[in-house]
Amino acid sequence: MKSLYLRSGLALVCAALLNACGGGNGNLALSGTITGLTKPDLVLINNKTGEKLPIPANTSTFVFTKLAAVDEEFNVTVSTPPTGGSCKPVGTSNVGKANAYTSYSIQFACQANPWTLGGTVTGLTSSGLILANGADTVSVLPPASAGAPVSFTFGTKVGDGSPYGVTVLAQPKDPAQVCTLSNNVGTMPGSDFSGVTVTCK
Question: Rg for the chain (alpha carbons), in Å?
Fold first, then answer.
């Protein structure tokens, strides 16, 4: 008799725990986290139900409105990428069967589209010119043909919509020259930008 009471009590405790964790048919909210989303217009979709979920810019969490049953399959992917960016699932967290663990651990990582930043140097006759965009630097050598313009690009790409600010880190020398900049501060457009102009005298 005592054993029967004990078993019944354990069953009630287990049921309560399942309820608290969202167990049972149609109780599990498919949800997760997003990192690096700075762009608008992202739409996620659960391909198993067809539900699409718009995600605003700078969002770090999401929850689908259609609840899933225990062991119901889910497959969450990107239906529409963010404007000027991209998002990918982290590992296989976006695919599986719903339970108290998997339903809340879907993860996506996003980034702004990377673009190349560069420009043109004119009038350079000496070596030693170093340009910088934040911590990223590039050395520019004088052209083989005197007076010819020299193109340059920074090695680290800049994210779509991110600010850039090019400065002269070191002026050319032997003989000394002074180089000035134009179009060197701005926001990265949705493409490579090679409009930074450096004039040396």
Answer: 28
CB-based contact 30:74 (threshold 8 Å): yes
* Chain segment 77-114, per-residue pLDDT in tens: 999 999 999 999 999 999 999 998 999 999 999 999 99
- Mean pLDDT, the chain, rounded, equals 90
Domains in the chain: boundaries: 21-112, 114-200
Q: Pick from 123, 88, 122, 130: which is nearest to 106 by CA?
A: 88
> Who's near 145: CB < 8 A, 6+ residues apart?
none
Quick: pLDDT tens for 57-67.
Answer: 999 999 999 99
> What number does CATH give the domain 114-200?
2.60.40
The single residue listed with the structure tokens 């043909």 is 145
Q: What are phi and psi of 47, to 5 degrees?
A: -65, -20
Cβ(169)–Cβ(189) under 8 Å?
no
Compute the distance between CA of residue 154 and CA of residue 156 in angstroms, rounded to an integer: 6
What are the residues whose beta carbons fall under 8 Å from the beta carbon of 72, sequence distance 6 or more? 28, 48, 97, 98
Is the model's pTM score more than 0.90? no
